[in-house]
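User: Just a sanity check before I run the rest of the batch. Below are the C-alpha cells for the first item. I only need the designed sequence back.
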C-alpha cells in the first residue's frame, strides 16, 4: 500500500544536512520496494545530486522546501544515451525517470537547478563531456505529472518529457535568467497526449517547445495531441515554438487563452531541409501578445545549430522533394491581439519545392511600436533586420486573412511576390 515517507527520516544519510543525495536514493528505494508512495520534503534547504524516481512514486515538495542541485559535473552519473541526442553519452538529470509509469513531481516548494556554473561553462566554450542536465527529464514514461512546483535556474532545458505518453504539466512556475543559454521552459519531445495548463514560464530560450527529433535521431515519434491553455509566457526567444527538431512530425495542437509578453516571437515554427517531418493541424485562439518582436513566424530556412550553415540550408533555389523535405500545413490562428510588436507583423518563408500551406488568420489585430528596436523576425542567413514591417511572405499557398488589422506599419502591409497565393481582407489603422 502506498504511503508517505518524510525525507527527514533519512537525515542520517545526509552528511549532517550537507548532501541529501543518498537520503533521496534510500527513500526512493524503500518506496519502490513497497509498491510506490510519496516522498515528502518539508520546509528547508536540501543540497543534492541527481534524484531518480521510479514507478508510482511522487516527489512532493512542501511549502518552504527547496532542493538545490549540485553544479559539479563529476557529481552526475552517465546515461547510456543523452536525451534528444541519441548516440552520445550524457549526464543524469537533476530529477529523472526512465521507462517508468505514474511518476510525479508535485507541491508548493522549489527545485533549484543552481545553473550559474553550467551557463558560465557554455559562455566560456568549455567542453562538458556529458553535456548539461535538464532540471526534470522523464524518458519513455507513461502517466507523468509535474504540478504546482516552482522551478528555477535550470542548467539546461527545464521540463523535458521525452518519448512519453499522458503528460500533465500544470500550475508550474519556471524562472531562468533571460541571458541563461538554452534554458527552455517546457519541451515535450516525441510525446503524445500532453496537457500544459496554467503555467508561468520566464526563461532564457523558448518558453514552450514541441519537438520530435532530428534527421539523426535513432528513434522518431510524433509529438501529437497537445493542449496548451491558460499560460503566461515571458521573455523567451519564442512563446509557443515548434521545431526545429520536428523530423518525427508534430500534429494536433491547440493553444488557447494564453498571454505572450516580451518574447522575441509569438508562435514560432522552424525547420530546414533534410529534417523531414510534417507539422500540421495547429490551432491557436484567444491569445494576447505584448511587446513581441514578431508575433507569427514560419521559417523553413532555420540556420542555427549543427549543419545550420551548410549551403543547402540557405539555398533559395528549388531542390528535389524527398523524405528530407519538411512540410508545414494547416494552421488556424484566431482572436489574437498583438500590441507593441517591433520587427514585423509576421513572417512566412517556405521552401520553393514545398511552400508553407494553409495558414488562416481570423480576427487578428497587430499594432506595431514605432519606437521599437529593429530586429530579425526569423533566424536565417541573409535576412536583414526589420522595423515596423508588415507581413513578409514568400513560398506560401492558401494563406487566408479574415478581418486582420494592422496599425503603425511602415511600408507594405503585406509583402508578397509571385510565389505566394493568398486571399482575404486586410485593414490598416491609417485607412490605407
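Assistant: Here's the designed sequence for the first item:
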Amino acid at each position: 500500500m502506498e504511503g508517505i515517507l518524510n525525507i527527514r527520516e533519512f537525515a542520517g544519510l545526509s552528511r549532517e544536512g550537507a548532501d541529501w543525495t543518498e537520503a533521496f536514493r534510500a527513500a526512493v528505494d524503500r518506496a519502490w520496494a513497497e509498491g510506490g508512495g510519496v516522498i515528502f520534503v518539508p520546509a528547508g534547504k536540501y543540497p543534492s545530486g541527481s534524484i531518480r524516481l521510479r514507478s508510482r512514486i511522487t516527489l512532493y515538495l512542501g511549502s518552504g522546501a527547496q532542493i538545490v542541485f549540485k553544479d559539479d559535473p563529476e557529481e552526475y552519473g552517465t546515461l547510456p544515451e543523452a536525451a534528444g541526442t541519441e548516440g552520445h553519452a550524457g549526464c543524469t538529470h537533476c530529477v529523472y525517470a526512465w521507462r517508468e509509469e505514474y511518476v510525479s513531481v508535485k507541491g508548493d516548494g522549489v527545485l533549484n537547478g543552481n545553473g550559474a556554473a553550467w551557463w558560465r561553462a557554455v559562455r566560456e566554450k568549455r567542453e562538458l563531456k556529458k553535456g548539461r542536465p535538464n532540471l526534470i527529464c522523464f524518458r519513455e514514461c507513461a502517466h507523468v505529472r509535474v504540478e504546482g512546483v516552482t522551478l528555477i535556474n535550470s542548467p539546461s532545458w527545464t521540463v523535458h518529457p521525452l518519448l512519453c505518453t499522458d503528460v500533465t504539466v500544470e500550475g508550474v512556475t519556471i524562472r531562468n535568467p533571460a541571458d541563461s543559454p538554452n534554458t527552455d521552459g517546457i519541451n515535450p519531445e516525441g510525446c503524445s497526449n500532453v496537457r500544459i495548463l496554467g503555467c508561468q514560464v520566464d526563461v532564457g530560450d523558448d518558453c514552450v517547445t514541441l519537438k520530435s527529433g532530428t534527421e539523426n535521431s535513432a528513434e522518431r515519434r510524433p509529438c501529437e495531441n497537445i493542449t496548451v491553455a491558460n499560460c503566461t509566457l515571458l521573455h523567451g526567444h519564442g512563446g509557443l515554438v515548434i521545431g526545429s527538431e520536428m523530423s518525427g512530425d508534430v500534429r494536433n495542437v491547440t493553444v488557447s487563452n494564453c498571454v505572450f509578453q516580451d518574447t522575441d516571437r509569438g508562435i514560432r515554427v522552424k525547420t530546414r531541409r533534410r529534417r523531414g517531418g510534417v507539422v500540421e493541424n495547429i490551432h491557436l485562439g484567444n491569445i494576447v501578445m505584448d511587446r513581441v518582436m514578431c508575433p507569427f513566424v514560419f521559417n523553413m530556412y532555420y540556420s542555427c545549430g549543427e549543419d545550420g550553415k551548410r549551403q543547402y540550408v540557405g539555398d533559395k533555389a528549388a531542390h528535389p522533394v524527398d523524405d528530407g523535405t519538411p512540410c508545414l500545413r494547416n494552421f488556424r490562428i484566431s482572436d489574437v491581439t498583438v500590441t507593441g510588436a517591433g520587427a514585423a507583423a509576421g513572417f512566412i518563408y517556405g521552401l520553393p519545392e514545398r511552400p508553407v500551406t494553409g495558414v488562416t488568420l481570423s480576427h487578428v489585430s497587430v499594432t506595431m511600436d514605432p519606437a521599437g528596436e529593429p530586429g530579425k523576425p526569423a533566424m536565417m542567413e541573409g535576412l536583414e533586420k526589420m522595423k515596423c514591417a508588415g507581413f513578409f511572405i514568400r513560398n506560401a499557398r492558401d494563406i487566408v486573412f479574415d478581418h486582420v488589422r494592422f496599425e503603425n506599419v511602415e511600408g507594405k502591409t503585406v509583402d508578397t511576390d509571385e510565389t505566394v497565393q493568398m486571399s482575404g481582407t486586410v485593414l490598416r489603422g491609417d485607412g490605407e
